[in-house]
Each structure stands twice: as structure tokens, then as C-alpha cells.
Design a protein that fits this description.
flat; alpha+beta; two-stranded antiparallel sheet; four-stranded mixed β-sheet; 114 residues
Length: 114
Amino acid sequence: MATATVPVYRWRLAPDGLATRRQLRTLGLRPGGQAVAAQVERPRRRRGPLVAYLYRIDRARPVRPMTARRAAALAKANAARRWCPTCRRDAGYVIPASLGMCSPCAYPEPDQHV
């Protein structure tokens, strides 16, 4: 069984008609289930190259419109990321996954004895 390979282009040398997911999004498009058409590689020192997948613009579909139910679900998910599991309060910002709790709980003030 032969495996299909995608063309690989150097950074900024991809042909017209191809775009990354972010580039599609700025055009109001999404990949829409199509397979990766190519990839672009940006070389880095002392590490492997950065890779971005490219999709065909002519096969891309329009972004689905935001409905009231989708907006409500997104707001609920973002609100859940603001609640601290330790003190059970709204932190007012998205709690970092590295801490797993709000800053006051992660770094409590030392007791001040006079």
C-alpha cells in the first residue's frame, strides 16, 4: 500500500491558491473537510523546522455563522475557565492551566507579623 505524500515548500515560497487555516479564516473561509494540499516549512536553528499545513482556497467553504445558541455555549465555556477550583470564585481572567488555580491561591501573601 503506497502512502500519499504532500508537496513541501520552503517558507514564503508556496504557490498562489494555497493558504493556512489562519489565512483562510481572515478570508472568512474554513477548510471544510478537505485534505491537506501541501505544507510549508520554516527552518530553525538547533531544532526541527516549523510546519504549517496548506489548504486549497478554491475548495474552502464559508465560515459558519455564529448563532445565539453557539454564542451562549462559547460564553459558558469561557466562564468555566475563569472559576478557581480552590477558592470557588470568579478570578476575572482565564486561569492558567500551568497553575490550575487563581494567582492569590497559587501565591498566597506571607503572614505579616508585627
